[in-house]
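A.,

Following up on our hallway conversation. Structure tokens first:
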């Protein structure tokens, strides 16, 4: 596997974008929400979902069109996992999106990189086998959280949120055919449940990834990519 200079440049640009988003942009968004009367926990949770979409989702969509191997995206994801873990370790949280005793954003970074890399390797170079499950985690789960935060003003589970996730994830899954839509539906269902310490940033991408791989092995007619 050969890494070309354009991929190195793309990785640097995407890394800078994510750092800017989590250290500056969402901090300003947090301050704006607080000035306009939103409770701290509500503002923090909105920010977490904004990061889901604008970091995890946007970057994931770019990957298949920019990279030929998952090496650099995986390295970037692991570095971001370390970057989000250190504040928990030192006690200096980025309070505008991080929460004490909740390191799900660290899990998010790690799963993002691992699932994309695994999808590429197992499918012989098709990024979408990893990217689509990551999009369910990044965009689909974010929609769930935004709906629940708007309705209940706290982090909680609600089937209304899962219905909203399904309305986004199933059409999104259509990019890979029937198997992708099934994966999106199952991801939307499984997000409702948490098995501490395993959170939905693990169960959502892993479950949908398994569906796509099983389809590749045993029912390729259900796939369009």
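Then the amino acids I'd put at each of the 225 positions:
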């Amino acid at each position: 596997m050969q890494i070309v200079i354009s991929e190195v440049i793309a990785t640097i640009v995407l890394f800078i974008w994510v750092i800017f988003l989590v250290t500056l942009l969402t901090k300003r968004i947090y301050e704006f929400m607080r000035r306009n009367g939103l409770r701290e926990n509500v503002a923090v949770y909105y920010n977490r979902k904004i990061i889901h979409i604008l970091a995890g989702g946007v970057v994931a969509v770019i990957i298949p069109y920019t990279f030929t191997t998952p090496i650099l995206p995986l390295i970037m994801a692991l570095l971001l996992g370390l970057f989000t873990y250190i504040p928990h370790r030192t006690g200096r949280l980025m309070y505008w999106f991080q929460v004490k005793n909740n390191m799900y954003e660290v899990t998010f970074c790690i799963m993002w990189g691992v699932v994309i890399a695994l999808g590429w390797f197992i499918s012989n170079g098709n990024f979408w086998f990893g990217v689509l499950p990551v999009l369910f985690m990044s965009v689909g789960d974010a929609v769930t959280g935004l709906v629940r935060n708007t309705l209940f003003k706290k982090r909680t589970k609600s089937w209304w949120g899962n219905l909203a996730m399904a309305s986004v994830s199933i059409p999104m899954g259509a990019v890979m055919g029937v198997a992708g839509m099934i994966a999106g539906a199952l991801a939307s269902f499984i997000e409702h449940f948490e098995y501490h310490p395993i959170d939905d940033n693990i169960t959502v991408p892993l479950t949908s990834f398994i569906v796509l791989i099983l389809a590749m092995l045993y029912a390729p007619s259900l796939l369009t990519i």
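The chain has a mean pLDDT of 93. Curious whether your intuition agrees with the design.

B.
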